[in-house]
Amino acid sequence: MRFLVIGGSGFLGSHIIEALRARRVDYKQPISIAVYDIVKPLPEETIDAVTYYVGDIVNEAKLTEVMKEFQPNLVFHTASPLHGLPPAVYYRVNVEGTRTVFSSCRAASVKNVIYTSSMGVIWTGAELDGVSEDQVSIPKHGYDAYHHTKAAAELISLDENGVDGMRVVVLRPCGIFGERDKQMFWRMAEVLEKGQQNVQIGSNTSLVDYAYVGNVAHAHVLAADKLLTEPDTVTGQVFFITNGTPMTH
Ligand code: NAD
């Protein structure tokens, strides 16, 4: 069983690899894992027995070549730029890059894709409490370029479902915390270290969902299991991934 993790040098991608390896026995056949990412992980974060391909997600020739060489049974598409970059970067990587993933899959006859979206794709800035996947649709204009393009990539992915036998599952994680997080929680720790936590913006009653990265990775592995063994139960579906207990923020 062969898995390609696009964006696998990153935080969540590396945990998906660990979760896949921890469940090796369940596939009843050896598993092989490869990463396609614009960067290699740090030496101390490189995982043994994983093949690392370095390339840009929008480089269709390179990604197709990698898919043809590695022949994955399933692709996890977790690549996305960091927060705080110019809008053009998000359009390029999330929108153009997601289209490229599917054209490369088609060229290499890869039929199973799990797209890592974000819970934020449905957010307009207004309060959302206890909503399920079928209660709220994606707004025409997302909250910012990151969320707008994550939503566009989600719609591209769902449009591909069923085309030429393509099977797609979309996962929408909430904010993720855990080992190797480089975006979010070190900033909170820095605020605490500097004693800046007395500054409060807003009423401190807003609720936000967070989930542990190991659980979000596990959700990806469960989605992969279902897609590979009982595809009709998950194909074309979208799932929120949350720990179920929102926190004030
Ligand atoms: P991350 O930055 O650690 O990982 C993303 C990976 O994508 C990086 O390794 C990066 O090098 C790669 N990448 C970026 N641009 C690329 C390009 N042009 N070509 C190839 N690879 C490229 O981020 P993460 O937190 O692990 O996020 C993984 C996924 O989960 C993303 O799709 C993100 O939108 C989604 N997500 C993250 C969170 C969170 O709180 N971290 C919450 C919801 C959804």
Q: Report the count of strand segments.
A: 11
Report the bound ligands by name, code or SMILES.
nicotinamide-adenine-dinucleotide
Unreliable stretches covering 5 or more consecutive residues = none
Secondary structural class: alpha/beta
Q: How many individual domains?
A: 1
Strand order of the largest sheet: 3-2-1-4-5-6-10
- String of helices and strands: EHEEHEHEHEEHEEHEE
Fraction of residues in helix = 25-40%
Could you report the average pLDDT, rounded to the nearest whole number? 93
Quaternary form: single chain
The assigned CATH architecture is 3-Layer(aba) Sandwich
Instruction: Return the CATH class.
Output: Alpha Beta
Query: Could you give me the name of the CATH homologous superfamily?
Result: NAD(P)-binding Rossmann-like Domain
| Broad shape | globular
Alpha carbon gap, first and last residue: 41 Å
Major sheet attributes: 7 strands, parallel
* Rg calc: 18 Å
Task: Give the percentage of residues in beta strands.
Answer: 15-25%
CATH topology: Rossmann fold
Family: Belongs to the 3-beta-HSD family.
Keywords: Oxidoreductase
GO molecular function, one term: oxidoreductase activity, acting on the CH-OH group of donors, NAD or NADP as acceptor
Protein name: 3-beta hydroxysteroid dehydrogenase/isomerase domain-containing protein
